[in-house]
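Translate structure to sequence.
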């Protein structure tokens, strides 16, 4: 069971299948396509993807914390 939970935490489906996230990501890329300066466009897209990666790592870390807390509390009961 722990292995399955770890696989789920490592799996990015929680984000990549979220329709709201995908819609907002598409909106961002649509707007970025309108930037004429290609170098600026690439800098903006790269920075947004770095921010998204950091936020994803934060969320996944919180998932693990909540899982461990729930597991600990369940063992104590």
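Result:
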């Amino acid at each position: 069971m722990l292995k399955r939970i770890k696989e789920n935490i490592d799996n990015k489906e929680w984000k990549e299948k979220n329709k709201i996230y995908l819609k907002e990501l598409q909106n961002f890329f649509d707007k970025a396509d309108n930037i004429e300066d290609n170098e600026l466009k690439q800098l903006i897209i790269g920075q947004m993807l770095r921010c998204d990666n950091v936020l994803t790592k934060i969320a996944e870390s919180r998932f693990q914390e909540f899982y461990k807390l729930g597991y600990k509390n369940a063992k104590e009961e």
